[in-house]
């Protein structure tokens, strides 16, 4: 009986030690799992914060993209309007060139013709320069060099107003870069004045006859005469 009790006691002691070891191992595993759970909880919080931040950034990017698309549409519309106006100006300048060429040729009637109409296509800048040269040639035929000095002394007070396309372009530029547009606004050559103010500053054009020669006309002027001399 004593041997059986001793064997039973030793077996219980071994089982107890085994259970203690298993309990310690389970405790370590539980501690490790707790640490992993805590780390995963921290990572979940980090990823949740990143997700919220990314969603806010996505909303901001969406709003920014919508704003850029709207500005792009406005810029395209302004550019299209400017090109349309430029094409209209080009057509009017071409018509003006033809009229000035016909006028200059008619002024040379009866004399050796020094100017011949050109069919060469021009850019807008070259077309404006050609019209300016034609206007100077017509002015030289009609008035000569009389009155040029007085014209230089008279300051130009004409204020140009912006066209609808130019106003649209200025609005787009002001939206895209308000600081630069605000700084450059005092030097802006375009004003909001009405077109009637521009029309009021135009002078009347004197009449002329295309078959009359003006090179042999004598003008009697005194020292008190001022202004232009216009042949009627």
UniProtKB/TrEMBL annotation:
Residues 9-99 form a coiled coil. One of its GO terms (biological process) is Golgi to plasma membrane protein transport. Pfam families: DASH_Hsk3. One of its GO terms (cellular component) is Golgi membrane. Keywords: Coiled coil. This is Golgin-45. It comes from Neovison vison. The lineage of its organism: Eukaryota, Metazoa, Chordata, Craniata, Vertebrata.
């Amino acid at each position: 009986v004593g041997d059986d009790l001793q064997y039973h006691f030793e077996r219980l002691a071994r089982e107890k030690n085994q259970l203690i070891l298993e309990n310690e191992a389970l405790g370590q595993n539980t501690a490790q799992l707790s640490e992993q759970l805590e780390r995963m909880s921290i990572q979940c919080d980090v990823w949740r914060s990143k997700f919220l931040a990314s969603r806010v950034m996505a909303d901001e990017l969406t709003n920014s993209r919508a704003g850029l698309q709207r500005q792009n549409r406005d810029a395209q519309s302004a550019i299209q309007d400017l090109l349309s106006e430029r094409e209209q100006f080009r057509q009017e300048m071409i018509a003006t060139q033809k009229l000035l060429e016909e006028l200059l040729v008619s002024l040379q009637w009866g004399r050796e013709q020094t100017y011949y109409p050109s069919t060469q296509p021009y850019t807008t800048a070259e077309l404006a320069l050609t019209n300016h040269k034609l206007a100077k040639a017509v002015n030289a035929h009609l008035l000569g060099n009389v009155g040029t000095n007085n014209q230089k002394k008279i300051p130009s007070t004409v204020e140009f107003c912006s066209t609808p396309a130019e106003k649209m372009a200025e609005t787009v530029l002001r939206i895209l870069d308000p600081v630069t547009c605000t700084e450059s606004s005092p030097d802006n050559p375009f004003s909001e004045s009405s077109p009637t103010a521009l029309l009021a500053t135009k002078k009347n054009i004197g009449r002329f006859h295309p078959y009359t020669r003006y090179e042999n006309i004598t003008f009697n002027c005194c020292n008190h005469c001022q202004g232009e001399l216009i042949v009627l």
